[in-house]
Amino acid sequence: MFAGLLRITTSILFLFSIVFTIPLAFDVGGRDCGLAFSLALTLFYFAYSSLRLITPDTSRFRYALVNFTAVCQWVVIPALLIWSLNQYSVDSSETSGWVERTFNRKRAGDESVQQWLFGRHGLMQSLSIGAWDRLMQWSVPVFQLAEGFCSLLVIQAAGQITRWVVNKEGGDGWMIGLLALSASIISTAVYFVYRITTFPELGNVDAILIGSAVTCVVFLCAWGIVSGRGNPIESSLLFAYVTLCIYQIFTDYQPAIGAENLPPAPQPEFPPLPPMLMASYTTLTQMLSSLPETIHSAFGFIMAAIMTITPSVIISLAYRVCVFYASTRIIPAVRESGARALSQEPTLEDSDGVGQILGLLSWFSPSILISVYTGLLMQHFASASSNGHAADWWTNQGGDAGGNIWRWLNLGMTMLLYAVELYMGISDEGSLTSHWKID
Q1: Which residue in 255, 235, 301, 330 sits closest to 78, CA to CA?
Q2: Other C-beta atoms within 10 Å of 41: how many?
């Protein structure tokens, strides 16, 4: 129990450290600094996962080395951040790519070939950052389309499970509860669709795309319920996912324009809390103000790291990680194992090849998580630059000012796959619940 609690605690601390430090590197050091820090973290956790994978479980050397590396990661992360800020902080006026920076005439002033190869902004550094930059740009459509496919898997699995629950004995109560849940999901999604229509940035093309997407998903939801090949849970979740995709395209989860210019609220005539609590609050404030300057600086650094985090990216990351993890449980269950696979993690010892691949990917999940998060940050900066927001520093440092075309393609492909599933669906009983027993 203690080991499991320690594992959960370290996983949460790792997630928070990654979520805070990577956008801080982009914000403080610039584009190259953020890419360098992300690449360094990916290589470190790739080496750590490879070490755990290739060494036998019974080896004492493995136990000592793996635990030593796990403890050192809390020193390695800030050390890599400081190193990236020191080596790769660039001037925002630098607009050339890594090839121009490496082979331009300024490099002729290097004292030796070693400095040209391994020095500051040398060939090895520029080549590694350039390759990682291209890899992250090419991975954006892969992760985006994979998110839609995995979301569709989760939606269909939820529909099959709820269908099995309703069809078993005493399913009438479940049916009423699931109908109420579906109505709540649809109502919430409709509210956010209304919020989308009030955004001031919408144009005529945007309105046409939103209307087409909403019309198609409403038609698919109605088709699935009327034909009996879907159910209210599937339809409501599909409608909610389409709404989420549209909301991510047109908003940054920030206050509307002009909200920061509202007049301040008037001071109340009476204190907001009783005098005893107000006195305690004042005493606590005075005690905090008397703390050493180092603690205040550390607190300011933490607040600065928190302020660099974009809520839309965090929501996208959390959703993407959840659907990817759920898919690793659903895919083996759909193939052959049935419901038992939902409670078991895929491993390399599985007889199924797909299970072995998913088990291998689970070993390198920290590196995959860092790559997904870096891709989301780059996609956010590119979209903000293309929309004319305060992210011009991204294009000024050689970043791509791409739009949200892959999000639109993901939305269309998800609805197309669901339409094909409805068209080809024959029986009501899905492969996920075909192994389950109904009393």
Answers
A1: 301
A2: 28
Q: Answer whether 17's CB lies under 8 Å from 373's CB.
A: no
Question: What amino acid is encoded at 28 in this protein?
Answer: V
* Residue listed under structure tokens 């007889």: 351
What b/e string do you get for 355-385 counting C-beta neighbours within 10 Å, with b at 16 or more? Answer: beebbeebebbbbbbbbbbbbbbbbbbbbbb
Residue 45: name the closest of 18, 26, 23, 63 by CA: 18
Which whole-number Å values give the CA distances from 146 to 100, 239, 321, 336, in the listed order? 34, 18, 11, 22
For residues 101 and 129, the answer to whether their CB atoms sit within 8 Å is no
Its pTM stands at: 0.76
Half-sphere exposure of 45 (CA within 13 A, CB side): 23
Q: Which long-range contacts (CB under 8 A, 24 or more apart) does 311-314 make?
A: 311/252, 311/253, 311/254, 312/248, 312/251, 312/252, 312/253, 312/380, 313/23, 313/373, 313/376, 313/377, 313/380, 314/19
The model's pLDDT over 101-159, given as tens digits with 9 standing for 90+, comes to 545 544 445 555 556 565 555 667 777 888 888 888 888 889 999 999 999 999 988 88
3-class DSSP state for residue 363?
helix
The rounded distance, in Å, linking the Cα atoms of 437 and 439 is 6
Exposure on the CB side of residue 2, measured as CA atoms within 13 A:
0
Place of tokens 């496919």: 149
| pLDDT tens sequence across 402-435 | 557 888 999 999 999 999 988 887 444 555 555 4
Pairwise CA distance, residues 423 & 341, whole Å: 28
Amino acid at 374: T
N-terminal to C-terminal alpha carbon distance within the chain: 35
Three-class SS of residue 274? coil
SS3 content of the chain, % helix, strand, coil (to 5): 75, 0, 25
Record the tokens describing residue 129, joined without a space. Answer: 């950052």
Closest to 147 in 3D by CA, of 314, 322, 364, 269:
322
Mean pLDDT rounded to a whole number for the chain = 75
